[in-house]
Amino acid sequence: MQLSVNRSIGVLTLDKIIDRNPVTVSGNVLVTDAIALMSGISEPNAVSTNKNDPSAACCCAEFGKKSSYVIITENTKIVGIFTEKDVVKLIASGKDFSNHKIAEVMSKNIVTLQQYQERDVSIALKLMHEYNIRHLPVVVSDGQLIGIVTYDNIRSQITPGCLLKMRKVSDIVETQVLQSEGNVSLVDLAILMREHQDTCTVIIEKKQVGDENSFLNVPIGIVTARDLVKFQAKKLDLVKTKAKDVMSQPLFPVNLKDSLWQTHQFMLSKKVRRLVVLGKNGELAGIINQSSILQVFDPVEMSRLITVLQHQVTMRSRELEQTNHQIEEANKKLQKIARKRQRDLERSQDLEAIINSISLKFDRIHTSILETVTKLESELTDSDPETKQLLENLESNSKRGLKLIRDISAYSNDLSA
């Protein structure tokens, strides 16, 4: 099925978001070696159950580069995948998996995407959202692995446009946040994350407000599935280690009123995948991550937003036409009154007051309309032809109204001279 994406934000082709150097290992690699490889602390050539066994080799783009997954292949064909979520499940199980091979614990039910020409990013986003996955291997027709699509790939290529500038953090914030106090052990934290099928826990401390029974949950750190991968690779004692001792800090918080454009740029500058959202009193209000931001680019969501914009522009255009009609009618009435000015000075003074009052009111109306036009033009620089035409109609009708106002003022000045 071919999906279309509104061209106002630009379309990414599938080719641009595929990482063609995926991290791959054979099924004979030990689980502990695969985790070390994912954490970036193990050299690719060192990952093997048998140094003389070529079937236990692995491939990695570069040593020291962290990865949220490894793909298990056999004769260049994908047979399984092992991700950060799988590491969390293993830790939470409490089993000793140090001597197990990756083939024994990998996920075998793999969602893949076949490569076709002229496919855009919405295809990958749709599959990842539908199956609630963060890693989408890409294969050719015969099943050969050619690369992988991840949220990191997509985020690095997307240049957010006016849609992100128009949305706020409050529009997509996830308010149901997994949270825990800092005295919890990493094993208990892994169990909590497994039970809630989450990859992140915000570490909080209680802050008393008002009476002694009122408290706010204030975020002080964060622990993610990627952190647990790193801790396991470093062979920390996950039973004795407390979350507060190893949590990521300081936090990089954002507020509910911040724009998604600013938030997206902030995430890129800090090289993080998620941000804690604070309420007005500094309490934990939610969390926002890169997948939430990417959902803004879902074709259905984009279509809905564009429809709303077009409706707003259409309504403003109709209001402007009605306003101009009222100005024309008022101008006719004022000209009729003005012809009697020579016969009655007192009525002339009344006429001048009416003209000044109406001109001031309509000047305010058109000033507001022009400000709206300017704002829409700056925010919809890459809009579709229909939207551009509506904006041009708005500008044309506004200029027409301003000319009528100037004619009225000029006529009033002539009468007063």
Please describe what this structure looks like:
- With about 425 residues, the protein is of the alpha/beta class.
- It has 3 domains: about 5-160, CBS-domain, CATH 3.10.580; about 165-295, Roll (CBS-domain), CATH 3.10.580.10; about 300-415, Up-down Bundle (Methane Monooxygenase Hydroxylase, Chain G, domain 1), CATH 1.20.58.
- It is built from 16 helices and 13 strands.
- It has helices at about 15, 30-40, 85-95, 100-105, 120-130, 150-155, 160-165, 170, 185-195, 225-235, 245, 260-270, 290-295, 300-340, 345-380, 385-415, and strands at about 25, 60, 70-75, 75-85, 115, 135-140, 145-150, 180, 200-210, 215-225, 255, 275-280, 285-290.
- It is elongated and about 110 Å long.
- The protein starts with 13 loop residues before the first helix and ends with a helix.
- The model is unreliable at about 1-10 and about 50-55 (pLDDT under 50).
